[in-house]
Amino acid sequence: MYVYILTNTGRTVLYIGITNDLRRRLYEHSSGRGDARKFTGRYQTDLLVYFELFTTPSQAVAREKELKGWSRAKKDALINAFNLTWQPIDLATWEG
Questions:
Q1: Average pLDDT, integer, range 60-82
Q2: How many CA atoms are closer than 13 Å to the CA of 59, on its beta-carbon side?
Q3: Are the C-beta atoms of residues 5 and 51 closer than 8 Å to each other?
Q4: Which CATH number is 11's domain given?
Q5: Average of pLDDT values for 25-52?
Q6: What's the Rg (C-alpha) of the chain?
Q7: Does any domain span residue 66?
Q8: What is the DSSP track for 13-43?
Q9: What is the mean pLDDT of the chain?
């Protein structure tokens, strides 16, 4: 299970989600781009800047809830420690 953070091109909005298939979920987010009925469409948040892998769904759900409760500054610091330039992560070439 993955917990992930998406942002938009202006880096002004963060979206935190959970999935068991990160590639599929990113595709779904990018497919819904511009759909104002969905958060990621409304705010154009489809750039992956952070993710974590968990062995159980309960661990991932707990972490997602924890991150959603953090301040923006704390979330920014977490992303900076993982991806200092906030460049979109390409899972096809990402080596960790």
A1: 98
A2: 8
A3: yes
A4: 3.40.1440.10
A5: 80
A6: 13
A7: yes
A8: -EEEEEES-HHHHHHHHHHTTT-TTSHHHHT
A9: 90
